[in-house]
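Changelog entry: the Methyltransferase record was regenerated in this release. Current contents:
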Amino acid sequence: MTAPEEFFTRLRRGPDVEAPELVAVDATDRLLLDEAAATLALCGPGEVAVVDDAYGALTLGAVGLHGASDVRVAQDLLVGERALARNAEQLGLAGSYRSLPLGAELAAGARLVLVQAPKGLEALREIAETVAASAAPDVTVLVGGRVKHMTHAMNDVLRESFADVSATLARQKSRVLVARGPRPHGSSFPRRQVHPDPAMTVCAHGAAFAGTKIDIGTRVLLKSLDRPAPADVALDLGCGTGVLAVALALARPEVRVIGVDQSAAAVASARATAAANGVGERIEVVRDDAADSLPDSSVDLVVCNPPFHVGAAVVTTAADRLFAAAARVLRPGGELWTVYNSALRYKPVLGRVVGPTTLVERAPKFTVTVSRRR
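Regenerated structure tokens:
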């Protein structure tokens, strides 16, 4: 056994952004592991599952500090999955866990499930439904988060799938919800919504951005998708639920369309959306990080609605990485069509990173540009 603080100081965020003010382990990770300690001591191999471990603190803490073995873990973001693998290797704990999708295999027979609370209620609902359907009857589910992000609605969501839901006292501005007594009732995901304009069915798993809705930025970009130059291969970069990819496939039957996203929920949603609209065989959806699975100069057209929030903060880091990825995968002369929050004024950045950039549409909230690869 290693002392907790000595153990935690060895964890890193990489390949995610590293900075002095950014941490790989937070107060919620510590509180979850402390609350789980007694139950961890009673769990045998394969009886512990973890959901949305940010960088590996929960999974590796359960193994390295509490002796758990064959831990099963589902992480929505690929960068978190890769950080867990790096940290496990560095700590000599490679092989102590299994990465799995959020589904029956993850939760089957689990007696303890540790969850970093997701941002949205629908994501929590899908986690709760999944665990209740497959975990052991005596399972304990611990959902931890920052107090400022915890709401009574989270308790209500958990009560849909568990008979007993309570909350611990707060510590260092974090709190844990405790759920027991699973009440399985099947999964309600992916959700489906039929939209008249554009005429499209959108499918979404719980953690997918915007759910079954079509967000405003995507709607703005959709109005311009009849304008890009002819293309053989098109890429929806950060595809989310696949709305732009499906729109391209429906409008341009001759184009090979690829959608990429680092979110497992987004990838599953995009595949379901493509199938629901009859273009599942024509759209390839890949889980990767900033199109790192695609060769250089392999794409004629990229469409992108980049994220501009990380939690409550407006940031540009994610968009900058996607712009650089577009520049790498585009063939010379290929086009990047981007929609973004008008206040962010990305046009100079796009011109520098990708190539000559033209304003297509500017509204108070959103701007559409086209950049041509040098």
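The longest strand covers residues 330-341.
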